[in-house]
Backbone:
């Protein structure tokens, strides 16, 4: 591989400009002079011209209609499952929070406990419920996609 030098770098800048049609007449003359004196650069220039020609003439094939049907089915499925998980998570958080609230209501109803202790208990319970639901949801998802689940140790 050749070491980059300022002349090669300039030649490559001129080649890119020429491919994009952005060179002035003097830049075109400079590029022609550089290409005449370096056969490797001239070969690279011909390859770049072929690549540009191929990319301008090629077109993308449109996928068959069945592919689009399958794509949209997958999109709808992911949206439905995402919405379902959100609703299940919110419902679990609400129900578990309510159940724990009922369990600690006697403690919170105690008039002798300071307010900051009650707030701490409430924060602990709510945070615990959120973490519990999050871990359970993650474990359920991981069980489906774990690449090591069938590995015997």
Residues:
């Amino acid at each position: 591989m050749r070491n980059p030098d300022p002349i090669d770098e300039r030649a490559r800048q001129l080649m890119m400009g020429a491919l994009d049609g952005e060179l002035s007449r003097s830049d075109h003359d400079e590029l022609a002079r550089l290409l005449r004196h370096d056969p490797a650069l001239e070969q690279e220039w011909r390859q770049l011209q072929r690549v540009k020609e191929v990319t301008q003439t090629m077109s993308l094939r449109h996928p068959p209609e069945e592919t689009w049907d399958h794509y949209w089915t997958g999109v709808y499925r992911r949206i439905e499952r995402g919405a379902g998980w959100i609703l299940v998570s919110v419902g679990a958080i609400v129900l578990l929070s309510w159940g724990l609230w009922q369990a600690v209501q006697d403690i919170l109803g105690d008039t002798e406990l300071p307010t900051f202790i009650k707030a701490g208990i409430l924060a602990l319970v709510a945070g615990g419920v959120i973490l519990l639901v999050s871990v359970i949801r993650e474990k359920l998802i991981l069980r489906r996609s774990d690449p090591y689940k069938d590995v015997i140790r």
Observations:
- The longest helix spans residues 65-109.
- The CA atoms of residues 11 and 34 lie 7 Å apart.
